[in-house]
Every structure is written in C-alpha cells, then in structure tokens.
Design brief:
alpha/beta; 15 strands; Rossmann fold; Glutathione S-transferase Yfyf (Class Pi), Chain A, domain 2; 2 domains
Length: about 375
C-alpha cells in the first residue's frame, strides 16, 4: 500500500499543497514547527479519520478558515483510488473516489498505517486505557467489524451502568433486566476478547526476533491481561452476579474487557515495573514493526509506515538496524530536524523533502 500523492487545503499550517511521494523511503526534514508532523498527521487522518495528536478535529483547520481537506491517491497492488477527509465546523465527511461514505466504519480499514511517534514512548507508563486504545486502533485496521462490535459493547456498558445506578437509587432488587444486559455485555465482550487475543498472539510471532535484530539482546513478548481469560459465558455470568451488590453501590461495571490491558515482558520482567526508559521505548518500536508482518499476513500487502522524529529517539546504529529490517515494499515516511545526521547511503535511497513554514519541496540533496 502506497500514498502516491497528498493534496491538502487549509490543513494545519498548509494553505494548499499537492505533493507526490516515493513508493519506498521518504524523508521529511525541517525545523521544529515547520509542518513536518502536520504532513504525516494528514496521512494518518486519511487512514483513521482522526489525528494522533489531538481529539478536536476543528483544530486541524487552518486559522481563519471554515473548512479543511486532505485527499490522497492510494495505490494498493494494481488498484489506485482516492480517499478524502473533509473537516468543517459542523463535523467531518469521508469520501472514496469523490463519493461520500455514510458510515465511518465502512471507510476505516481501507488504508492501513503504522505510526511511531514520540507520543508512543509513554505508552508503557500510561494508564491501561491508552494501551486498550492502541489495541482497538490496530485491530480496527484489520477488521472493520471490530469497530461495530466495540461500539455495541460500549453502548450496552453505558446502559448497564445507568441501570445499576437507577437500581441503587430506587432500591430495586429485581435483577431480571440486569441479567439480560449482562448476558449481552458478555456476548460482545467475548468477541472482543477473541480479536484481541489473536492479535497479541500474532504480534508475538515476530516481536522477539525484531527486538533482537535492532537491539541485539533480550526476549520481548506482550501479554494480554483480561478477566475473560479462560472463562466461558456461564462462568462469566456467575462472576458478574457475585458482584451485583457492589456494582449497584458503585454505579458501574467492575468486570469486563473495558478493564483489559497489555503488558510488555522483557526477559520475564514487566517493563512497566522494571524497565528502563530506553527499554520501554525500544519495546514500543518493536511492537510497531511487528505489526507490519501481522498486517501483511492478514491482508497480503504491507501497510504504510510512519516514523516521526525517530532520529531524536535512537542512535544511528539502531536506526540503521531498523532500516535494514524494512522490506522495500514498505512505503516509509521519516521526519527529522537534522538531515545531516542521516547516513549518506540512506539518503541516496530516499526521496527527500524540505519542509519550511507551511511549504514543502523536493530536495535533490546532491
């Protein structure tokens, strides 16, 4: 999968640009604040219809304007299609080949993308919610039905929490309707658990070898932690029912896949408890690169890879090891502030772009 070209109008600090990329390695360089990350943010937006930096879409619209548009020509094997996301004060719309797509879930999973950014280095230290979010984003790129199942789970969870609070306030001890909601929650939860388990198992097929190839030491695995592990629907229902009184007092559901987590285990040690900052960062990079193989295994093509500000996170040797791992069929975008730190042999293989004050131009870098 490749981004052949990117067209932006009033997006972040860009008034209007149209740029064509290399099918293999693209390097974007410029000072901080010049707009490098805005460009890869636009590519990410085309894939997942949202930013990886902020939750407010309106902030992506260039100041003084009421609309912004990102459009990309995306090549997947022999198919070339255009994808677009239009942002306005009233919301956003998505298009495929200039035709509006009514459901976001019908758009997501069409463009597969793997992103590593400085924000990701904090994932292992972050709250479990952030790691669940990581799982949800990555699995939704593989299976569009996952988003629907997840939305259904969250809908039932809200209904269940509301009913628990109303039972407590009204002194209602009739659990007939609560059992109905609980069974439905378990049904969707078991489906989500299966998707997440399979995804983590597939990551573990590759992550150890990748970690060793880059950092030359250590056995890295991820561990999926869930209250649903090895539980049948009947067993789970009994577990929920034991907690009904406590849940009514708290007004919320205390069991379920909305409490799941993933742990990064290096040489049998949980990196959240025992890992250094460098080890945690390295683990996340290895996780992201393992996803390349997981997506290829499932979809028979490689996703787009974005490495934002990688050179500030790793030394030259580690970066060289990463680039050696990359198949030439993987279209890769790297951003950096210091082009001179990149090895000459890497530059010769790449298409170089200089980004400056909302403009971008190809740099032949002779």
């Amino acid at each position: 999968m490749k981004v052949e070209s990117l067209y932006l109008v009033n997006f972040r600090n860009y008034e209007k640009i149209n740029i064509e990329f290399s099918d293999s390695l693209n390097i974007l360089y410029g000072k901080n604040g010049s707009g490098k990350t805005n460009l890869i943010e636009a590519i990410y937006l085309l894939s997942l219809t949202k930013s990886f930096r902020i939750s407010n879409d309106k902030s992506l619209i260039k100041k003084g304007n009421i609309k912004a548009k990102a459009k990309g020509e995306i090549k997947n094997n022999d198919d070339l299609s255009s994808y677009g996301v239009i942002l306005s004060k009233d919301g956003k719309t998505v298009e495929i080949n200039d035709q509006k797509v009514n459901k976001i879930s019908d758009y997501i999973s069409k463009i597969n993308i793997i992103l590593f950014s400085p924000f990701d280095t904090r994932l292992i230290d972050a709250a479990p919610m952030e790691r669940r979010k990581l799982l949800n984003i990555e699995i939704s790129q593989l299976f569009k039905e996952y988003l629907v199942i997840l939305a259904n789970y969250e809908k039932i969870l809200k209904q269940r929490n509301f009913y628990l609070r109303s039972m407590y306030i009204n002194g209602n001890n009739d659990t007939e309707y609560l059992n109905i909601l609980t069974k439905k929650l378990i049904e969707y939860g078991l489906l989500i658990y299966k998707y997440r388990t399979n995804f983590c198992d597939n990551i573990n097929k590759y992550i150890t070898e990748i970690f060793k190839s880059i950092f030359n030491i250590g056995e890295l695995k991820i561990k999926y932690v869930s209250s649903y592990k090895n539980k049948t629907e009947t067993m789970l229902l009994k577990s929920y029912q034991k907690n009904y009184s406590k849940e009514m007092e708290l007004g919320k559901t205390i069991l379920g896949i909305h409490h799941d987590d993933i742990e990064f285990i290096l040489d049998n040690n949980n990196l959240k408890e025992w890992g250094s900052e460098g080890q945690r960062k390295n683990a996340i990079i290895s996780f992201k690169l393992a996803e390349l193989n997981v997506i290829y295994e499932h979809k028979k093509y490689y996703p787009i890879l974005i490495l934002d500000d990688l050179f500030s996170e790793l030394d030259k040797e580690k970066i060289a090891n990463i680039l050696k791992l990359l198949n030439e069929k993987v279209q890769t975008f790297i951003t950096t502030t210091e082009i001179n730190k990149i090895e000459r042999k890497i530059i010769k293989k790449a298409k170089i772009f200089k980004v400056e004050n909302g403009t971008i131009e190809e740099d032949l870098h002779e």
